[in-house]
Design a protein that fits this description.
Largest sheet: 5 strands, antiparallel
Order of helices and strands: EEEEEHEEEEEEEH
CATH architecture: Beta Complex
Number of strands: 12
Distance between the termini: 59 Å
Strand content: 35-45%
Radius of gyration: 16 Å
CATH topology: Metal Binding Protein, Guanine Nucleotide Exchange Factor, Chain A
Helix content: under 10%
Strand order of the largest sheet: 6-11-10-9-8
Shape: globular
Length: 140
C-alpha cells in the first residue's frame, strides 16, 4: 500500500500548491497559493459580474500576489466602493478583485489560471450578488 497522496485535480487539471495567472496579453501576472485547489468556484449575478461573465474563486489576501505588471493594473470601484476590481490596462482582462463581502479575500478569475479551462468545472454555483447583504444593511 502506497502512502503517496494522488495529485489533486480539478476537472482533470493537475493542481499544484502555487499557480500562475495571467491576463490575455501577459502584461499582468499573479502568483496564487492554492493548496486545496480551486475552492468554491462561482458565478455572480451582480451588475458587474453579469457583464464580465467570469467564474471566480477566492483566496485570502496573503495567497495572491502580483508578480508582474502592478503598474499596468487598472482599478474600478462602484456602489459602496468597498470592492476593488482589477484589470489589465492593455488587454482589459479582469484578473482579480478584493471582495466586498469579505475584504480579507481576493476573488480571482479562474480563466486566468495558466492551463485551466473554467468551462470544464462542474456544478458552478450562482451567487446572489443582486441581493448583496451589504446593500440590505445600508437600506435598513
Amino acid at each position: 500500500m502506497s502512502l503517496l497522496k494522488a495529485p489533486l485535480q480539478v476537472a482533470g487539471w493537475p493542481m499544484n500548491p502555487t499557480h500562475r495567472a495571467t491576463c490575455h496579453c501577459g502584461a499582468v501576472e499573479l502568483a496564487l497559493t492554492l493548496p486545496d485547489g480551486i475552492e468554491d468556484p462561482r458565478r455572480c449575478d451582480c451588475s458587474m459580474c453579469r457583464r464580465r461573465g467570469t467564474i471566480v474563486a477566492s483566496v485570502t489576501l496573503d495567497r495572491l500576489s502580483v508578480v508582474k505588471g502592478a503598474d499596468n493594473l487598472g482599478r474600478y470601484q462602484f456602489n459602496t466602493h468597498t470592492a476593488q476590481h482589477f484589470f489589465c490596462k492593455t488587454c482589459g482582462i479582469y484578473t482579480h478583485h478584493q471582495r466586498r463581502s469579505n475584504p480579507g479575500e481576493y476573488g480571482y478569475n479562474v480563466g486566468c489560471l495558466e492551463g485551466a479551462n473554467p468551462y470544464a468545472l462542474e456544478n458552478v454555483r450562482l451567487a446572489d450578488g443582486v441581493s448583496h447583504p451589504a446593500d440590505e444593511e445600508s437600506n435598513a
